[in-house]
Design brief:
The chain has 88 residues and is mainly beta. The protein has a domain of 59 residues: Ubiquitin-like (UB roll) (Roll). It is 14% helix and 35% strand. The protein contains one helix and four strands; from the N terminus they run E-E-E-E-H. A hairpin with a 2-residue loop joins strand 2 and strand 3. It is elongated and about 50 Å long.
Length: 88
């Protein structure tokens, strides 16, 4: 009997496994670079797809945009899945 591999199947390549690892979260906020080192994310061992924790993204959203009128808000990260090259 073999042990089940940790993590989950990669939703992008469907070949690799996304496992919890530490990485740096980077995004543009108000035309400035936001960089947060040592953040927990799930990263694919084959295609390097990165999926950040939704709680982290929700907390960032609340802290960065509290007090901003709702109609002026444009999400820095629209979902927990990172964009892939070639996607528009």
């Amino acid at each position: 009997m073999t042990a089940k591999a940790p993590g989950y199947a990669c939703p992008r390549c469907t070949v690799g496994r996304c496992t919890p690892q530490r990485t740096t979260f980077c995004d543009m906020v108000h035309d400035q670079l936001l960089s947060i080192p040592n953040v927990l994310a799930h990263i694919c061992d084959v295609c390097n797809f990165v999926e950040f924790d939704q709680e982290l993204l929700d907390t960032l959203w609340e802290n960065l945009y509290s007090g901003t009128p709702r109609e002026e808000l444009v999400p820095a990260v629209s979902s927990k899945r990172s964009p892939t090259f070639g996607e528009g």
